[in-house]
Design brief:
It is built from 14 helices and 18 strands. Helices cover 35% and strands 28% of the residues. It folds into 2 domains: 162 residues, NAD(P)-binding Rossmann-like Domain (Rossmann fold); 210 residues, Dihydrodipicolinate Reductase, domain 2. The protein is an alpha/beta fold. Helix 1 crosses helix 12 and helix 4 runs parallel beside helix 5.
Length: 385
C-alpha cells in the first residue's frame, strides 16, 4: 500500500517521520507546493524513506492523479481543504484521514458516509490530539464504566520555558488558535448539547513539578463530535485548554477590544481585518520555536459493578531534542500516523465516515503510543460514596 501526505508543515513532517519508522507502507509521499518548504523538509527527513514531491492541493488535475495512485491520503493542510479532499478521496476510492479543526466541516464530511461505504472507503476526520487522542480516551472510559457521570478533557501545548507577556508559544496556526478562543465551546449536560462562551469558567489544575498549578478554561473544537456520539451515554462532558496562570485574562482583554474581528475596517488609510493584525502580531512577538511540552489530563467519574470509580489519564510529553520534533508534533502527528497504520494493517476494516471514538480500538492505540515514547498513565480507583 502507498500513502500520500498533503502539506509539509510541522504536522505533515511528523506524520511522515512516524510512518517511515513504524509503518509497512511500500511508498510514503509527502506533497508540498512551496519549493522552499520542500527543500527544508527534505533536509528534515533526509534519513528516512519519505519522498518529498511537488503537489498543489488546489490544482485538481495534480490532486486527482496523486489520489488515484495512493491507497491512503492524509491531509495535514488547513481544515478548509478537508471536505473537498474527502469528496475526491471517495471518487478515487482512496482512504482519507485528516486533523479536523472545524465542527461544521467535520459534520459535512460525516454526511458522505453512504458514498464512502459504497466505494469501499474509510474516512476518519479529527485524528490529531484534541480532537483525536482525547476522543479515543473518552471511548476507553465509556468502554470501562457501566455508567459515566462525567468526562472532563484538559489539554494544552505550552513552552517548556515560558516568557512574558503571554507565557505561550505558537505551536500551530495563529488563526486556529484565535478560532479556539473566540468560537463557542460545546458542552454535553445530561442529554443537552449547549454552547458556552470560550475563555470562561477558569479553573486550576495540579501537575507534577515544574508545572504545579496551571489554569484551564473553555475553548472550542477540542471535543468535536463527542457530545453527539455520547449524548445518551455520558451525563456531562466538557473540554478546556490548559495554560500557565494569567494567560486567559490577558488574551480575553485583547479579544474584548475587538482584535479578533474578521470584518475589515479603515485604519490610517489601510483596509484591514483586526484578526489579520492579531495573527501577525502573535507571530511577530510570541515565540514560534523552542522546547515545548504537551499537558493532558482527562478526569472521569462513574459506576462500575455498582461501585463509584474515578478513571483519570495523565500525559506530559516533551520536545524530542534528538530528532528536533516538538511535543505538539508528536502528540498530534503520531496519532494520525497510527490511524493510517491501522488501515494499512487491517486493524480498521469498517467502511464509511467515522470519528476516532467510533472506530479506533483504544487498547491497541495506546500500545502504539507507548512504542513512540508517548506515555499515557492511567489511574483507576474506587471511591467512597
Amino acid at each position: 500500500m502507498n500513502v500520500v501526505i498533503l502539506g509539509a508543515g510541522m504536522m505533515g513532517r511528523a506524520i511522515a517521520y512516524d510512518l517511515s519508522k513504524f509503518s509497512n507502507f511500500d511508498e510514503i509521499l509527502l506533497g508540498e507546493k512551496d519549493s522552499k518548504t520542500r527543500a527544508s523538509t527534505r533536509r528534515f527527513l533526509q534519513e528516512t524513506r519519505v519522498k518529498v514531491i511537488p503537489l498543489d492541493a488546489e490544482r485538481t488535475s495534480d490532486l486527482k492523479n496523486r489520489l488515484q495512485k495512493g491507497d491512503v491520503i492524509i491531509s495535514a493542510l488547513p481544515y478548509r481543504y478537508n471536505y473537498r479532499l474527502a469528496q475526491r478521496a471517495i471518487q478515487t476510492k482512496t482512504h482519507f484521514i485528516d486533523l479536523g479543526g472545524n465542527n461544521t466541516i467535520v459534520e459535512n464530511e460525516r454526511r458522505l458516509f453512504s458514498q464512502a461505504k459504497k466505494n469501499d472507503v474509510t474516512i476518519i476526520p479529527d485524528s490529531g490530539l484534541a480532537p483525536g487522542l482525547v476522543s479515543i480516551i473518552t471511548r476507553d472510559i465509556v468502554d470501562h464504566l457501566d455508567i459515566v457521570n462525567s468526562v472532563r478533557l484538559r489539554v494544552g501545548g505550552l513552552p517548556t520555558h515560558p516568557k512574558p507577556p503571554l507565557n505561550y508559544q505558537i505551536v500551530f496556526s495563529p488563526y486556529g488558535l484565535i478560532n479556539e478562543y473566540v468560537e463557542d465551546a460545546l458542552i454535553l449536560d445530561h442529554g443537552r448539547i449547549i454552547q458556552k462562551k470560550s475563555m470562561t469558567e477558569v479553573e486550576t489544575l495540579q501537575f507534577p513539578k515544574p508545572f504545579e498549578t496551571m489554569e484551564a478554561f473553555l475553548t472550542s473544537g477540542g471535543c468535536s463530535t463527542l457530545p453527539y456520539t455520547y449524548r445518551h451515554t455520558v451525563d456531562y462532558l466538557d473540554y478546556k485548554t490548559i495554560r500557565y496562570p494569567g494567560h486567559c485574562e490577558k488574551i480575553k482583554a485583547i479579544l474584548d477590544l475587538g482584535f479578533a474581528d474578521e470584518k475589515k475596517m479603515n485604519c490610517a488609510g489601510q483596509v484591514i481585518a483586526p484578526r489579520d493584525v492579531l495573527a501577525s502580531m502573535l507571530i511577530k512577538n510570541v515565540p514560534t520555536t523552542g522546547e515545548d511540552v504537551v499537558l493532558l489530563k482527562v478526569m472521569s467519574q462513574g459506576i462500575k459493578q455498582g461501585k463509584k470509580r474515578v478513571r483519570e489519564f495523565l500525559l506530559i510529553d516533551y520536545y524530542d531534542k534528538k530528532n528536533n520534533i516538538t511535543a505538539m508534533m508528536r502528540t498530534t502527528g503520531y496519532p494520525v500516523a497510527i490511524t493510517a497504520q491501522m488501515i494499512e494493517n487491517g486493524t480498521i476494516q469498517e467502511r464509511g465516515v467515522f470519528c476516532p471514538e467510533e472506530i479506533i480500538p483504544p487498547t491497541v492505540f495506546f500500545k502504539e503510543l507507548k512504542k513512540r515514547g508517548i506515555n499515557l498513565s492511567l489511574s483507576d480507583r474506587s471511591v467512597s460514596s
